[in-house]
Amino acid sequence: MPLQQDYDTPSTGAVASYHVVQQVSIDYVSNLVGATVASYLSKDARDAGKFAMYTQQIQLQGLPEAGTDALAYAEAQLSAVVPTDGSVVPGFPNRYAFAGATVVE
User: Fold this and answer.
1) pLDDT band at 86; cut points 50, 70, 90
2) Does residue 78 contact residue 56 with C-beta atoms inside 8 Å?
3) What is the pTM assigned to this prediction?
4) Which domain of life is it from (predicted)?
5) Distance separating alpha carbons of residues 69 and 76, to the nearest angstrom
6) Is residue 89 situated within a structural domain?
């Protein structure tokens, strides 16, 4: 399911509010999930067939548990709040770009 949150796109500074995970890849060796996220002005814009304003690859540490849908895992991880326990891994600058986003239908 898409994510809803205002996001200033880095390329233009324009605000996109509707984000769709288009692709999920699983790297079992590195213990990473890669999510390709397309950001649209709004749900209406996407439904009208408009192009994404911005697309980015976001690396997520960890793997989904056996039997867990990879897309659902990626969406849950992307919308998770930034941890305050110091467990944020450096080197992934856009990892929490959608922290706190609402998962919508």
Assistant:
1) confident
2) no
3) 0.91
4) Bacteria
5) 11
6) no
